[in-house]
Design a protein that fits this description.
The protein is of the alpha+beta class and 188 residues long. The protein has a single domain, classed as Phosphatidylethanolamine-binding Protein (Alpha-Beta Complex). It is built from three helices and eight strands; from the N terminus they run αβββαββββαβ. The chain has helices at 6-16, 80-83, 163-173, and strands spanning 27-29, 59-62, 70-77, 86-94, 100-101, 118-119, 141-150, 174-184. The strands form two sheets. The chain has a five-stranded antiparallel β-sheet with strand order 6-4-3-7-8. It has a three-stranded antiparallel β-sheet with strand order 1-2-5, with no helix packed on it. Helix 1 (6-16) packs parallel to helix 3 (163-173). The chain is globular.
C-alpha cells in the first residue's frame, strides 16, 4: 500500500472542510483602515527590506452567534507565492467575552494580547504578527483578516502547528466567520 504525503492529506481535508458561514450581524472592523482600504505603514513588516513598524492592527468585532465559546483571528495574503498565499498572523483561544484586539497585540509579550489567547505559527516560521511586505512592483496584495466564532473554548493545538492545518481546524470548529480585507503594495 502506498503512503500519501501529509501535505496532500491536509490539502484534501482543507478542500473537504466547508468554509464557515457568515452569521447575520457578525462583523469585524479596524480603526486603522476601512474594509478594502490601504493598510498604513504602521502595519508593514520591519524585515526583508520593509521598513514599517510591524504593529498588528486594532480589530473590533460584534454580533457573534449564540454558543460562541472562543474566537480566533487570522491574516492571510491570498496573492503571495503565486496565489498559494502567506500567513501573517494567527491568534487562537481568544476568550468569548473579548470583542477585539488592541493595536500591537501581535508583539511578543504585549499586554494587549488578551489573557489566555495564544499566537500560532505564521508562514514566517514565528508565532507573532508579521506585517505585509509584498515584492516591490507587485500590484497591492490583499490581506484577508478573518475572525472565527468557535464552538470550542480551546483548540488545544500543539505549538508549531502549520497555519494551513490551523485553518482546517478553525473551519471545522467555527460557528461563523467575519472578514475584512486590507490592501498593501510597495512601489519601490
Amino acid at each position: 500500500m502506498r503512503s500519501v504525503p501529509r501535505a496532500a492529506c491536509l490539502a484534501a481535508l482543507a478542500l473537504a472542510t466547508p468554509r464557515p458561514a457568515a452569521a447575520a450581524g457578525f462583523g469585524v472592523t479596524s480603526p486603522d483602515f476601512p474594509d478594502g482600504g490601504t493598510m498604513p505603514p504602521a502595519q508593514e513588516l520591519d524585515l526583508h527590506g520593509c521598513t514599517g513598524a510591524n504593529r498588528s492592527p486594532a480589530l473590533a468585532w460584534s454580533g457573534a452567534p449564540a454558543g460562541t465559546r472562543s474566537f480566533a483571528v487570522t491574516i492571510h495574503d491570498t496573492d503571495a507565492r503565486g496565489g498559494r498565499g502567506w500567513w501573517h498572523w494567527v491568534v487562537l483561544d481568544i476568550p468569548p467575552d473579548v470583542r477585539g484586539l488592541r493595536a500591537g497585540a501581535g508583539t511578543p509579550g504585549s499586554p494587549a494580547l488578551p489573557a489566555g489567547a495564544t499566537q500560532g505559527r505564521t508562514s514566517f516560521g514565528f508565532a507573532r504578527y508579521g506585517g505585509p511586505c509584498p515584492p516591490v512592483g507587485d500590484p497591492p496584495h490583499h490581506y484577508r483578516i478573518t475572525v472565527y466564532a468557535l464552538r470550542v473554548a480551546r483548540l488545544n493545538l500543539p505549538a508549531g502547528t502549520p497555519p494551513d492545518a490551523v485553518r482546517t481546524r478553525l473551519r471545522a470548529d467555527a460557528l461563523a466567520s467575519a472578514r475584512i480585507v486590507g490592501r498593501f503594495g510597495r512601489a519601490r
